[in-house]
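Recall from the previous lesson that a structure prediction takes nothing but the amino acid sequence as input. Here we apply that procedure to Polysaccharide biosynthesis protein GumN from Novosphingobium guangzhouense. The sequence below is the only information supplied.
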Amino acid sequence: MIPRIVAALAGLAGLALAACSTAPQEANPALWQVVDTKGNVGWLFGTIHSAEHPLAWRTDKVGAALDKAGTIMVEVGNLANDAEVAATFAELARSRNEPPLSERIPAKNHKALAALLAKSGHEDGDFAAMDTWAAALTIARAGADDADTRNGVDRAVIAAAGNRPVVELEGAARQLGIFDALPEREQRDLLAAVVVEAAQPDHDLSASWRKGDMAAIERETRTGMLADPELREALFTGRNRDWTTKIARSIRSGARPFVAVGAAHMAGEQGLAAMLATQGFTVTRIE
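The prediction returns the following tokens.
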């Protein structure tokens, strides 16, 4: 199992696999209603960024909330523009004279790295012109098996926005910039986490998401690279705090936001639902 946030961002880098043509899988994903003290309302919808099969995600309650929403809030608004996102990735990823990947991680991970490189079709020295974080995202694609970002629910929600505004919580440049700003030590921890988790038996996160099993999803956020305190702060907790501020402002303004972000960001005491509750909102899971 590769880190799920890495799998999602590998898709941002324009690395999606070929789309599947199978029938959509039924889903009952998690949905929360958020209300402020004046009765202004918004919704939190936990998405999945990639999946092997198309997903029937629009339940009656999700559809009703989406229809009532005045604004759609997502992590990145231009997910369908692969060329633009890939260009952003290429610009941020550029480096030179970097060492082989095997020199950027502990020797104990070399065997797993060799297996992942072979699977991805790359050589150890192919990343001399790429930052370590970008190399990690690139080879993470190989660990994603048949998951496809074009089956991601984020894209479907954006497509359902119609004429309503789509507001980015981050945007591709800022989201990828979080990785680019990591100290080299943390970038190498990220690379090692990708390598280690790719060598482990895969957990079907999509099954947990389809059942709305937030306890299972929360457990996922405590493993892999998100178990590293510095990476967790940069990639999970810090982002959630920033998003909470923006979501709270949108709800209080009466914009009726439908917030569709990765379900992991809803999980646990450091998730968006809990953070909004601490700010005085009434947060109720309704699906």
